[in-house]
Amino acid sequence: MQIHMIAAVIAIVALALAAAAFIILRRRKSFEWDDMDGHDFEFYCAGLLEKSGFLSVEVTRGSKDYGVDILAEKDGVTYAIQCKCYTSPVGIKAVQEAYAGRDYYDRMVGVVMTNQYFTAPAVEVANKLKIMMWDRDYIEAMLEEENK
Predict the structure, then answer these.
(1) Count of Cβ atoms closer than 10 Å to residue 94 Cβ
(2) pLDDT beneath 50, residues of the chain
(3) DSSP per-residue letters across 12-62
(4) pLDDT recorded at residue 114
């Protein structure tokens, strides 16, 4: 009887560990864009935006882009988008770049689009400066919507 109870506890623990591993792997799922360099990621994001209904999607030149990698428009709203393909969370600097670029290009909305997530200070600054933050979950949702 005691052996059956021990086996049941082991089975429950194994199931819990498997569920936790699934959640972690789901959160850390690797995408083709995780291995791209910054320039390739910009073009990947531009293509994704076009497939998501954005118009006049333009990748800015690599240097002197004033903190913006993509200019686009959707439903009459103009966007200035800063792309960051990183291996760690995105910080304040990217938000500041999107803020400056939004104003330089006279766009309505500034965005930081990344394959990662954002640091807490970056989120705080983005909220203050009214910069949108499109993280890997947002990009994944765009991909899922595209595949429907």
Answers:
(1) 24
(2) 24-26
(3) HHHHHHHHHHHHHHHHT---GGGG--HHHHHHHHHHHHHHTT-EEEEEPPS
(4) 95
